[in-house]
């Protein structure tokens, strides 16, 4: 299977980081393509996107200032198939992407994605106290997988905080209080 292409540009507002591509995503060449994945629904219902996008439109998120990547490139049926070596290699590659593209916010789509990236043992939902890569803001959101047992309303409320955070950053920049 071919690796899934990242959708990245410099100075994005938000970079969404998932675990790795599903088999379905690898087959279609688009992020979050599994019909059981709720990523596109969550973004729309949390007011992050103006409409519900389809996975085939994943590249259009760049027009909104959002990018897509994964901590591990190899497609699997489940995240528990990812090896420690793959996470280690992925961590280094992701750090370089963040340093190069300089997104304002890095949203980790899944607590374990952030735990693997940060090396921390425990984190809370939402804004993190210290970014792993200086100059960005780390935000931890629930995985959009259909396997997540959280209520959809709770998941959406966490993602809505991402919208509020981005608005406050943009407001600070407009009023000359931000450095971005």
From TrEMBL:
Record-linked InterPro entries: MUG/TDG, Uracil-DNA_glycosylase-like, Uracil-DNA_glycosylase-like_sf
SUPFAM superfamilies for the chain: Uracil-DNA glycosylase-like
Entry-linked Pfam families: UDG
Keyword DNA damage: yes
Keywords noted in UniProt: DNA damage, DNA repair, Hydrolase
Keyword Nucleotide-binding annotated: no
Biological processes annotated in GO: base-excision repair, AP site formation
GO molecular function: pyrimidine-specific mismatch base pair DNA N-glycosylase activity; uracil DNA N-glycosylase activity
Domain annotation Uracil-DNA glycosylase-like: ranges: 8-153
The protein's name in its UniProt record: G/U mismatch-specific DNA glycosylase
Source species: Bacillus methanolicus (strain MGA3 / ATCC 53907)
């Amino acid at each position: 299977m071919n690796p899934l292409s990242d959708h990245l540009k410099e100075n994005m507002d938000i970079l969404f980081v998932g675990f790795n591509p599903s088999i379905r995503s690898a087959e279609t060449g688009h992020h979050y393509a599994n019909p059981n994945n709720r990523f596109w629904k969550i973004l729309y219902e949390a007011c992050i996107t103006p409409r519900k996008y389809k996975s085939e439109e994943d590249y259009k998120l760049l027009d909104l200032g959002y990018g897509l990547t994964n901590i591990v490139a190899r497609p699997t049926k489940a995240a528990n198939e990812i090896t420690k070596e793959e996470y280690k290699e992925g961590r280094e590659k992701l750090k370089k992407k963040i340093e190069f593209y300089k997104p304002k916010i890095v949203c980790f789509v899944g607590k374990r994605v952030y735990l693997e990236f940060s090396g921390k043992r425990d984190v809370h939902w939402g804004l993190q106290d210290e970014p792993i890569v200086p100059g960005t803001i780390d935000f931890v959101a629930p995985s959009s997988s259909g396997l997540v047992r959280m209520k959809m309303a709770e998941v959406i409320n966490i993602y809505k905080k991402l919208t509020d955070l981005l608005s406050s950053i943009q407001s600070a920049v407009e009023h000359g209080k931000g450095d971005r």
